[in-house]
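Known limitations

Structure tokens in this collection are predictions and should be treated as such. Users comparing against experimental data should check residue numbering before alignment. To illustrate the layout, the record for MoaB/Mog domain-containing protein is reproduced below. The input appears on top and the generated tokens appear beneath it.
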Amino acid sequence: MDKLKVAILIVSDTASQDPASDRTANALAPILDAESKWEHPAVRIVPDNVFEIQRAVCEWSDDSVNWYNLILLSGGTGFAIKDNTPEAVSPLIHRHAPGLVHGMIAASLKVTPFAMMSRPVAGVRDKSLIITLPGSPKGAVENLEAVVKLLPHACLQSAGANSRNMHAAGVKSLEAEAGVSSGTHSHTHLQKKPSQCSHHHGPGHVAPKAHTSSNRQQSNDPSAGPNRRYRSSPYPMLSVEEALLQISEHTPEPIIIESPVNTAIVGSVVAEDVYAAESVPAYKASIVDGYAVIAPDSTNNAPSTKGVFPVASVNHANVGGSLSPLKQGTIARITTGAPLPPNANAVVMVEDTDLVSSTPDGTEEATVDILTGDIKPGENVREPGSDVRLGEKILARGDVISSVGGEVGLLASTGIRTVKVFKKPTIGVLSTGDELVEHDDPRTLTGGQIRDSNRPSLLACLSSWGFPTVDLGIARDTPASELEHALRDSLRGVGRASSGVDVIVTTGGVSMGELDFLKPTIERSLGGTIHFGRVSMKPGKPTTFATVPFKETGEGTTQQERKSKLIFSLPGNPASALVTLNLFVLPSLHKLTGLGESSRAISSKPWLAPQLGLPRVAVVLTHHFPLDPKRTEYHRAVVTASRSDGRLYATSTGVEGVGQRSSRVGSLANANALVVLRPGRGVGIKGEIVEALMMGGVYGSDTRLIC
Ligand SMILES: Nc1nc2c(c(=O)[nH]1)N[C@H]1C(S)=C(S)[C@@H](COP(=O)(O)OP(=O)(O)OC[C@H]3O[C@@H](n4cnc5c(N)ncnc54)[C@H](O)[C@@H]3O)O[C@H]1N2
Ligand code: MOO
Ligand SMILES: [Mg+2]
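Generated tokens:
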């Protein structure tokens, strides 16, 4: 018999930094070598990080050529916060092996009651047997020794060997070595072929409840095949309002970064009150072009400003150095914004003066006649700090740095070089489907191929909202592992998503088809939680929202814990994808970007206040709109403002025939609003006032009148 392949994954933050500190791998290897059934183990070390662990296990189990029969993990199985090896491994397991877990704990309990504090996991993924062991060399050795005799047999069965033959050939001796007797129960168990196990996972079987958010059944098992898929969705149908509440609840709080004041902060929300670092103006400045004068007041006994005065000096804006004081009886020429010389207290506009004489060379003013005596101290002068006082609060937490430029101007003028803002989330967009072809592929479509229109349209929409995006490409439906790898890579920040994403938006694969793998992949393979998988709306019924646990540490941030990443899995139909992006993803992005803080700061409203998501307005229907009997419809429409009566009017982008069909992305071309049509019989009547969500600016019109 060929030797079996075995890999050891050491899970330890310490050993990942200092590989020499690991003693467990060297302690385990001799136990396997003694069996002479194993190749020398491959060893790798990763930190206590769910994604690193999953990546290594998948590499060893999923490669169709170089897969390993046995994958042993050591470390991260205790109760400490950072111990998350079982959480990383459980979702990867297709068929659990509680017997091995029981055997290991029973053996350890003979040695120490602390065995109860270990949380081992064991089971089969594809053809590989995966077992977690404690991190200490002693504990790992004890656990491995407890099961090692059974492992060659277990691995061969997992790999698909005929168990009857194996049983006849060697089980008796195995049992003898392991010190167990071959009772009826163990016979039955060992005789089961791996493929037979899958019938446990069809509908009717209560799957292990790992990360579901309710008591419902877990999503379809992709390996069960179409004849075993659910024939009704296990996901409860939520109302749009309930779905928005779930999103609100599970969208993490925004995190703060220090950002330089430049164009990139436009659209950001200020995270801490900002105080002026400098006064504006920093000096006494002229508001006009003219002559600085000493206007009479009770303190200076100056004569009237009316009369002819010698021009003593010239003050331009941008002068360096110190200015000589203005003497009584003289004036100084000055430009707008320039500093007044000491003693000057007012400026006379050049329009209120006449030139009397020039210097002998004819190039300069010698004397000027001031035509008005009605100049008061302070006239045409900006006092230091009169625009902005040093230390004055110029922006408050929650303020939005708008594209108008006023906030950037304030920061720039007061010497603020960096500002604390909430980090804008980065969104990765992934299309799924075997039928998809790049939209710009020059080849003619064949068979059931269609162009991927969702990715470009979603990326365009997200960019227009001002969020950084990552194009995650297309993941095929088959093999299902392609989707799993694409999502995991994006969550871990490798490949196309190397700069990291906070939110993943996928389209396709969320409904009831046998290739609709999104939900099972999130739940079963990534250990995510699906908060909802169906919404009573049209279009967009199968919209799915999930969170996947994650810990982030990065540069330049002050609060580094983003505990989970968000996945919005939108329906594949193009109109459904865009409508649900607007309706569900935008409010979440707004919360992540700190706009929730904004609404709290401004009005103490909860985060679902109108500032989050699309603005809501009341519109008048310009014609009859058909209603759906069950689902709330988000009808694509053009909203115009009437100049005659100041009201907003909504006209459908197409009510006849296929106008609003969810495959018809054209229903969103020119649309600037989603008209909210509550379910009912018949039609929404022309002239009726309903709610609309504005996706773009209102068009102007004075012709849109109804009677
Ligand atoms: N038996 C049932 N079937 C369907 C139901 C249902 O409740 N029971 N729901 C329907 C509804 S409603 C929708 S919406 C769709 C959602 O389908 P999926 O999200 O599973 O998406 P796919 O099956 O992958 O594709 C649907 C459709 O969209 C096209 N598509 C997919 N991706 C793209 C893309 N990137 N660019 C352009 N077009 C795309 C795909 O080719 C299909 O034509 O399910 C109904 N079925
Ligand atoms: O819910 Mo679907 O998006 O109507 O076609
Ligand atoms: Mg589908």
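For this record: The radius of gyration is 36 Å. The chain has five domains: 6-201, 240-251+423-603, 256-279+387-422, 285-382, 616-701. Please report discrepancies through the issue tracker.
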